[in-house]
Amino acid sequence: MALSKIDLANMVENQMPQSLIADNINFRNIIINGDMSLSQRSTSVSSITGSGYNTVDRYTLQLSSQGTWTQSQSTDVPTGQGFAKSLKMDCTTADASPSASDEFSLRQKIEGQNLQYLKKGTSSAESTTVSFWVKSNKIGTYICELRDSDNSRQINKSYTISSANTWEKKTITYDGDTTGALDNDNARSLDVVWWLGAGSNFTSGTLQTSWGSIVAANRAVGQVNLADSTSNEWYITGVQLEAGTASDFEFLPVDVNLQRCQRYFETGIVGAAGGLSNGSGYTGSMVSYSTTKRAAATLTQSSQSYASVYSNTIVLGQTGSTNVNDVNGFYHRAINGGAATNYKFTYTADAEL
Length: 353
What we know:
The protein is mainly beta. Helices cover 4% and strands 42% of the residues.
């Protein structure tokens, strides 16, 4: 019986053939939490009238005097696409006639050091593609913008919601920008912006569909006003930003996705039982974060419970009068007047862009 020839030189144990993984580039999606699966702050916030982070991780509102809103993490998703959650905007107080300066958008802000391979500002600048699933009862023209905050540049493209209350996939490609390199650091360099409403300051020009210096009047030309009725809702999920053309959505394991979100925001619980004074009227300890933060975080505490803590006072980020708060964690101290100390509190650490 003849034996088959085995190519030992090219055989690697437990490795998938290259033909099967050629198109599976890990972390090709620049967007974090594109499937809207994580919502550390809350799953629903109502009576929103201003800007900020509310529910789904890594997505912030820019909202200036354009209605009142409830934002929530929804289970309404496109059928058969693998998504379990979406982000929902629900109008609860309408504004049918926005003022000139009114601005209403959802956005994700991205660190410059995560964007260097796009080669922006060089002759080899890569084109980029944004893809996402969207649904609304308010049909019409919407604007999706890339905004370079390092060089004050923008590019804006329109998409159309054609069928009311129907999930639709949108794919938008933007040319590479040969002007204005993005800073290679941990600061904000690029925003992906989904406009939902705008006053005339942002709609009175000509939509800027190629890269150029930021001109406010050219940013949201043609944008519908999602705030014109309390019947209006808008959903989004499956967001992907990548170099070149669109590919299938990149689903990540939940632990990987959580770690990426916790670089910017984390919540946790600290407790101490029978802690002893350090001789200066304080007791406390160092709290280590689950993952390294983008920068030293802004700390808050809540849900406090105390026993034997003088004046119910816990100070975050300090030991004695010295600040101890960096990307790896923070020190907290409880003022105890020399007595044993028992306490528990919840903290949030915010290092968002």
